[in-house]
Design a protein that fits this description.
about 100 residues; mainly alpha; about 0% strand; flat
Length: about 100
């Protein structure tokens, strides 16, 4: 159960907005595909969409997941462990950037 104090109308509005984003994205993608006739333009739009999706995933992982990991009581008191976690995070992000070159 959530500890939020939002009203029922706000919750219903947020659920409706969330439920409409996928169909609206599909319609927008179809419209863009038919409006851009050359393949270079379509590749450019696809590249922007992929970059936006990847950026959102990196943001969510950095803000939501890692913030929880770094706020654990064991990690807070151990500087060496925190340093190792930061180095591992940078290594992972760098390796994903290198892999993105071939994707």
């Amino acid at each position: 159960m959530s500890s939020t104090t939002l009203s029922t109308n706000k919750i219903a509005g947020l659920v409706l907005f969330f439920a409409c984003t996928l169909p609206l994205g599909i319609v927008l993608g179809i419209i863009i595909t038919f409006c851009i006739e050359d393949s270079h333009g379509q590749e450019l739009v696809e590249g922007y969409a992929n970059a936006l999706a990847a950026g959102i995933l990196v943001y969510v992982s950095m803000v939501e997941m890692l913030a929880e990991e770094f706020s654990h009581p064991v990690v807070k008191g151990d500087f060496l462990l925190k340093s190792k976690m930061i180095v591992a995070m940078i290594f992972g992000l760098t390796s994903m950037c290198v892999l993105a070159i071939w994707a």
